[in-house]
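#dry-run=false #mode=assembly
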Amino acid sequence: MRSTVSLWFAVAHRSFRRYSTYRAATFAGIFTNSVFGLIISFTYIAVWKQNPTAGGYDVADAVTYAWLGQAMIMTVAVWSGGATDDLAARIKTGDVAIDLYRPVSLLGWYLASDLGRAGYHLLTRGLAPMIFGALVFDLHYPANALVWVHFAVSVVLAVTVSFGVRMLVSASAFWLLDDTGVKHLAAVFAMFFSGLAVPLVLFPGWTSDVAQALPWASYLQVPADIWLGKDQGADVLAAVGFQVLWTVVLLLACHLVLARANRKVVVQGG
Amino acid sequence: MSVIEVRDVDRSFVVRHRSGRLRRTSTIVRAVRDLSFSVEAGEMVGYIGPNGAGKSTTIKMLTGILVPTAGSLRVAGHTPYAERAALAQRIGVVFGQRTTLWWDLPLRDSYDLLRRIYRIPADRYRENLATFTDLLDLGPLLETPVRQLSLGQRMRGDIAAALLHDPDVVYLDEPTIGLDVVSKSNLRDFLRETNRERGVTVLLTTHDLVDIERLCSRVMVIDAGRLVFDGSLEGLHGLGEARRTLVVDLMEPAPPLDVPTAQTLRVDGPRQWLAFPAEASAAPLLAAIAATHEVADLAILEPNIEDVIKRIYSTGPAPSD
Ligand SMILES: Nc1ncnc2c1ncn2[C@@H]1O[C@H](COP(=O)(O)OP(=O)(O)OP(=O)(O)O)[C@@H](O)[C@H]1O
Ligand SMILES: [Mg+2]
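#status=ok
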């Protein structure tokens, strides 16, 4: 048990280090996130000038949301990327056979690897644009230390939920050989239902409720509402519980799908 | 005691392909049929055969990443596909065409991950790493990311990776593919040494017959999924009706020589190549030629395992379904 945990830590650590070797990509990404942060902030400012309480947000909430969105794009890998892309590539080349004969869980391995990656992206692509946004605009911050803790937990869960979704997408390559089509489709869903384009609280009527029940709400809307203090007391627990629930459901689905994929490879030969 | 037991193993694949607009037909490829053999602990066995013969398929089944369609396999007391995780602790695998290392990590980090995956005790790990670093000359490479290694360097790294956890059996699927002569020779020395010193059982697949000549006392030849030969290297020579070749340089160009005990293979100006049975003497043959032609020079080529194999491949049992 202890050695398994230490293996996952080692995998996460290696993954963190691996991403940290791509410096130029990191700087280019921070620049892009910052530019988009500016564009979206000005757009939101214009919208909230028309309707200063849209979705229960004031204009500072909205601008903060814009920067949180930029910070979360790479951290949760909204439209794809991360360790799950490695898996899809390894299925295509057949290298996945090597992953299969290792005496470790494939799901655990890729999850650990993706968490390591997310850690790196949080500290770079997450933090840097956020600081930039904070210098340019008046943002809202968590009210106290407890909210920071809740937010941190929520971000980790945002990554695990997104990992579950991306893993299912990548695993489709076991059957389709190429997951590009599924990936594009999933990216559109993620873009829309994560609230990255338009906050889910702005969705009209019942569509907002539906959107906030889907797994993609975990990516941005849930952590943002915790950060902004929209959820208080028991609501925080419910919000985090919602993310835990989706994590469990998706990881269970991944487990079943990978077991089937394993059987397919072993029985059909790929 | 046999560490590898293969009994009546069949493996077929269903290959689907489009035939026409919507119709899809499927054919069955029998990659391995009726395969039986066993390997004793500490043996070093060569497993050869032409492309598509079924070598990699066999190794995949022995690793547990492919189930046999019929028949049974046992490796180190385990049924590979049913007990893959337990078996993994006892075997090491090198797929020459792929790497088990992590592209973006320095070699040392890959080894550290393997140490954790296989739960190698710290002192064993340190000892093995030191030994392999020394024997495979990995010292200068340990801090290099795998993607920056040359093919030969990577292969050495992969071989060390397969042996770190002290496996009882290693499968090497084309470990010398793409290596230069010196690298091949060093690698062979290392394999021979490892087999002898550590008693590791080795099953080696290759297209380079020199690997087999240098390393393996036993050879198995598979062709179109069937085992067509299993025995010593000398036996293989005998099986292929080994022939020697007499190369004669005549004083004058001449039409192909007609000698009853030999077969004229080739004529190039005054030079002619004649094949004759390996066990026959060259003297009467030479006398017969000298009786009718003036001989300027001659040479005798010993049977070559490559020719022997070529002959076995082309006369092996034809695939039938
Ligand atoms: N996953 C698969 N699906 C369908 N056919 C397969 C599959 N794997 C192998 N085959 C077929 O099985 C046969 C044996 O293949 P195998 O890879 O075992 O050959 P090999 O002896 O390793 O050849 P090589 O020397 O080229 O590596 C070939 O006809 C191959 O096309
Ligand atoms: Mg092969």
